[in-house]
Description:
The protein is an alpha/beta fold. Helices cover 33% and strands 23% of the residues.
Amino acid sequence: MTDHGSLYQGWRDDPLGYWREQASRIAWETAPSEVFDAAAGPYGRWFPDGRLNTSYNCLDRHVEAGAGDRPALVWDSAMTGEVVTHTYRELRDRVAKLAGALAAVGVGRGDRVVIYMPMVPEAAIAMLACARLGAVHSVVFGGFASSELATRIDATAPRVVIAASCGLEPGRVVEYKPVLDEALTLARHRPEACFVLQRPQAPAELMAGRDHDLLAAEAAASPHDPVPVQATDPLYILHTSGTTGRPKGIVRDNGGHAVALAASIPTIFGLSEGDVYWAASDVGWVVGHSYIVYAPLLAGLTSVMYEGKPVGTPDAAAFWRVIERHRVNVLFTAPTAIRAIRRQDPELDLKAEHDLSSLQAVFLAGERCDPPTAIWLQEQLDRPVIDNWWQTETGWPITARFRGGELTPFKPGSGGRPSPGFEVAALDDLGSPLAAGETGNLAIRLPLPPGCAPTLWGDDEGYRTSYLEDFPGWYRTGDAGRVDGDGDVWVLGRTDDIINVAGHRLSTGAMEEVLAAHPDVAECAVIGAPDPLKGELPTGLVVLKTGADRDPAAIAGELVAMVRERIGAVASFRTVLVVDQLPKTRSGKILRRTLRDLATGGPVQVPPTIEDPDVVDRLREAFGAVEAQAAR
Length: 632
Ligand code: COA
Ligand code: AMP
């Protein structure tokens, strides 16, 4: 394997040849004769005439090659104390049977299936069963409330919903089925059937005629063969936060996705067949899709799926216990998880009780990793810590350090160098590339490589306006940052109203819509305030309507409850400041940048267009009072 420089140069010299070669990692029903069709979709489509089945490539192919007895998916639940291993053969057989059960209720190629499940093997089995049929799954993260689930049900119009009766969070059982039932009363669309995994911690009531017991249906079904689909057919839709309250339906295709993810395992992660990979994420997020389910299985690895937290289930040694127990070679997690562990075990004393000799490297992504956390972890573990930058839209790392060859230098705070396929630049506001080291809008030269979202669900035009219009010829990432003289990329944060809370991408616009719906609220803004554990936490500022004479603390409490109920616990929305005015320009635009500056407690940029400069001092006092309260 070559180092990053020659790998990247190989792609630069012959981009189509590079991807043609990577496509040979996949078993095609019909090999693509064309690598890229520039005329299709918002920016082109990869492998347009190829045909394949993703579940065949994840499962059957390895069984047929003699690896049927190799562990494919190891589920380790810190919540129940169970460990369950599925070999490639066992996983293929369960996926084929569940696909049979879905087909029996009419699910076929192109049909959508919403999956609302916690971290259980059946979540991966459900995803792969859809892939087997050429159906399109849409996984909804378990921490979202019923109205968010309803929005996603209406957006994808699924024929079937697959859910679990409950999820397990520290200290509480979260009943999923009532959330699903409520979502189905809120949604306009009606699925024809629901399949429910009954967990013993809280079995659900099933509605006759609509709901099926998932395990019983699987047991009774005949196995279904993989259905070959067009490489450009959608494999899944994953909704992610945009700048408005309406989430974006990110589409992933079958062919480009399989090729890009299969290629990422040896090049970026430096692993090969039989190695053990653990992405401590959730199947509800893109990292879970790509690196708990698809990439490890495409590459014939053993994937560890963990139900639990980095701390508190039961202690800060949970990660080291899982690594030791399953001989994990690469761990992928979010910086928040490492900060949580460090807070409880600052010298990493607990690691001494565990054999971590299998561990080769730790990959961190999902949010900006603060340099002290990266340095601390690398020193404590004496293993490379690899920050890598990506988005739900890209599906795999835009930048990283590459374990397939000699690692590029450790630069804490940088996301590393672009993966082959991505040309990254910082652009000024008019779209001209900036010199090395200058900060601007991070953008990726079109076309995006295989594996990246080719479009939004049913919305080519929305894709163009969201990502392609601002800087012609480039994909706008929405992140600000710079590229240094060595080509390393430094991501500083979003340029829009998306915030990142514990590695979870959330829209402040969606929270503002909830606050604005309160009868006493005249105006509001939600911003991300820095938080030492979760990176950012949402803070709401509200101005009450004239005549609203109720206790502001009571109103604040109601607003916190409303966000939890309508968006979900995952928003971690706990702070509301009731203020007399928001900072605005003379034309009435809320000065969010000024609010963010106030929240960070640093120097505040006050633009000359501000309507009333005095409001800044009053707000500074309000933020100061919150900080003082937090310190107590
Ligand atoms: N189903 C239901 N509720 C969920 C949930 C799920 N799948 N996931 C989270 N929640 C709830 C939590 O119970 C919590 O509820 P609470 O307000 O009643 O306590 C809330 O959503 C916030 O959850 P979380 O952000 O996970 O915070 P936490 O305080 O429970 O745990 C950490 C803190 C640091 C342990 C946790 O944030 C963590 O593990 N972070 C790593 C993030 C990560 O891996 N991100 C993936 C991106 S790659
Ligand atoms: P998501 O779509 O949930 O993966 O969130 C994508 C966003 O998370 C990016 O646009 C960045 O703002 C942020 N992000 C992800 N990984 C990194 C990283 N390694 N460094 C900095 N920011 C990151």
